[in-house]
């Protein structure tokens, strides 16, 4: 069982357009609505891989009810915490060439009582889980320290925890020594306060996060691959990708693959890379199933190419 926590979930509405003309009345050629939010995406990927998962999230209004229903349609139990505000709705506009324009809503403001109810739900469910994955941005009303408290609560319940967030929330969570943190290259650069130009720079930044409390760092480096830095060493993984269709949710698929494979060591890194590579070759935010994975396309090594320049260096 993998429990996910999404403090700011969403309904994701996607409209496919023949063209994006500002100031015009646009008619969609297709549209769809899907459950969204980083932790929700991890649950979707875990379920697609055939594993049990429960999604904890604040849910409010008819939007929250629909989100719970959509999760159920995917075989995912929604452990929803009722909140006064309505669950946010995010909009994605897709042009024929694959260009995405996203409009992400702020989401409801969470009260102190609702925040405590979220922690209580995690505490009650964490004892029966192998991993807790808390992912995404914090909604209004939750301070950065809330993630640190969540890590502490999960540890008291005897669960291992993975954190995928950024900025002050990630910085605060490090103090409670999460088993895994999963930044991308931009988030890694932000939290250490310096640019990353090479894979070696990313390794040093990941080591800094371990010095500050993270027991392992799984870092997504976009098209360059992924890094795992833990107590046993540093490992680099990459995969051949035929064609990129959408990178939406690819990092969440990677984390799901990593945790489902045990969440430690080079074998779990290989699973993370395989899931991420499969996800970018699928449309929209579709999560890979076992038949989508190509383990033979994945390479992992302890001989990390430290001098290799990043395809997308961080400023």
From TrEMBL:
Q: Name one Pfam family in it.
A: PfkB
Going by the UniProt record, its keywords in alphabetical order are: ATP-binding, Kinase, Nucleotide-binding, Transferase
UniProt superkingdom: Bacteria
According to the UniProt entry, what is the EC number of this protein? 2.7.1.56
Q: Which residues form the Carbohydrate kinase PfkB domain?
A: 15-291
Which InterPro entries does this UniProt record tie to the protein?
1-PFruKinase, PfkB_dom, Ribokinase-like, Tagatose/fructose_Pkinase
Q: Which family does it belong to?
A: Belongs to the carbohydrate kinase PfkB family.
Stated name of the protein: 1-phosphofructokinase
**Species in which this protein is naturally found:** Streptomyces silvisoli
- Gene symbol here is pfkB
């Amino acid at each position: 069982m993998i429990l996910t926590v999404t403090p700011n979930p969403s309904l994701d509405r996607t409209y496919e357009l023949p063209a994006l003309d500002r100031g015009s009345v646009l008619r969609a050629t297709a549209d769809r609505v899907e459950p969204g939010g980083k932790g929700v995406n991890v649950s979707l990927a875990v379920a697609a891989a055939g594993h049990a998962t429960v999604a904890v999230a604040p849910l409010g209004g008819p939007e929250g009810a629909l989100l719970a229903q959509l999760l159920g349609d995917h075989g995912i139990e929604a452990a929803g915490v009722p909140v006064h505000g309505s669950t946010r709705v995010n909009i994605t506009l897709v042009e024929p060439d694959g260009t995405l324009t996203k409009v992400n809503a702020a989401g409801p403001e969470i009260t102190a009582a609702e925040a405590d109810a979220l922690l209580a739900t995690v505490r009650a469910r964490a004892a029966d889980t192998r991993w807790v994955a808390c992912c995404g941005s914090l909604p209004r009303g939750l301070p950065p320290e809330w993630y640190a408290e969540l890590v502490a609560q999960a540890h008291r319940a005897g669960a291992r925890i993975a954190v995928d967030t950024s900025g002050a929330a990630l910085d605060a969570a490090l103090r409670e020594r999460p088993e895994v943190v999963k930044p991308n290259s931009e988030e890694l650069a932000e939290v250490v306060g310096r640019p990353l130009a090479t894979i070696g720079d990313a390794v040093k930044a990941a080591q800094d996060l371990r010095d500050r409390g993270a027991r392992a760092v799984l870092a997504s480096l976009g098209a360059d691959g992924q890094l795992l830095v833990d107590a046993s060493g540093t490992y680099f993984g990459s995969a051949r990708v035929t064609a990129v269709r959408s990178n939406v949710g690819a990092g969440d698929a990677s984390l799901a693959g990593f945790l489902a494979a045990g969440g430690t060591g080079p074998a779990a890194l290989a699973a993370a890379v395989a899931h991420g590579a499969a996800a970018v070759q699928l449309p929209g935010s579709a999560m890979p199933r076992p038949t989508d994975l190509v383990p033979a396309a994945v390479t992992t090594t302890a001989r990390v190419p430290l001098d290799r320049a990043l395809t997308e260096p961080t400023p």
